[in-house]
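Student: Please help interpret what follows.
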Amino acid sequence: MWKPATPPTTSTNKSNETEKTMTPPSTTPAPVMNEPTPAAAPRNAALNMQEQATIGKSLVIKGEVSGSESLYIDGRVEGSINLPGNRVTIGRNGVVAANVVAREIVVIGKLKGNLTASDRVDIRNEGSLTGDVVAQRISIEDGAFFKGGIDIRKPGAQNVPAKEAASVTPSTDKMKEAVTA
């Protein structure tokens, strides 16, 4: 037979009448399983606090996208995306044919174009990227598709494309003059 773990308690009401109440039996809580964070979760909780615009599944945008907030694309975008201090996420249904400049770029859908990220580029297992990447860090999950080049830049390095960097380098004659002077 079942017995309550704690005996009944008494309480008094305003008319000083005593009434008995049963407290629920104390049960040990079931162990809580800590599940791993899903791969698509943002890295920092602060990112959740920022505003994020969304381009839905049925939207098609052609042209230049720029602004000062993060962007989640689940529709189609053609042109260019310029959000240098923010995060751009190409969602599972997203199809993008654009060059993208952002702080962080996450590819879960399909993207064709060159990426320049001041922080990182993540290509998730369902993602597909065809184009060149310039970033400080890159992550390509197992199962992702990537075709292009990767240029890893150290923090503080200028984001100058490799072709332009060659033309900016001083010639050896000018370097010799500087050494002899």
Q: What stands out?
A: The mean pLDDT is 77.
